[in-house]
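Sequence in, structure out.
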Amino acid sequence: MKYLFLLILVLAGCEGIRPQQVSFERPVVNVPRECRQSNWLGSLGQGSCVHATMISLLRWQGRYDTAAQWKNKYGNGESPEGLVAKFEANGTRFAETTLGDVAFLEWAVRTRRGCGVTVMGGKHMVALVHLDNQFAILLDNNRVDRFIVVPRETFLAEWKNSYGWAITILYAPAAPLPQVVF
């Protein structure tokens, strides 16, 4: 059967077939529903959006034990300095930008890590799970049932007006997107 297929290809020719790359997953950081952490009120009655975002990203990277420990240990609002201090105290490797560096966002998505980004004037953090030339796709811990698609430039303007903070965890990301040439 295999040889019959090859014979047909040889006889028919492949001139009309053009190689193209096909990505099978969108958003690139396609966090499964059961791994998405909803925002919760911490012991001080503050939302825990920064921690919820980091927990979703930890789960995406297969760090379920670390995510569970993080949820049990931390909550409430968080500043960039406070989160960095917690990462350092826990030996968690991370990378961040506080300067609105778009190349950082592109790298975080391209490496399938995703990243937490500030929005709403810096009052909220969500996960950036996709960024291409047209769109940004966000996972909001206040609405974990769906992804939010935003025009790229709209998102970037909002993020930069919200202090341009983005942070990601540096464990091994998920495998690269499969690429098929046919």
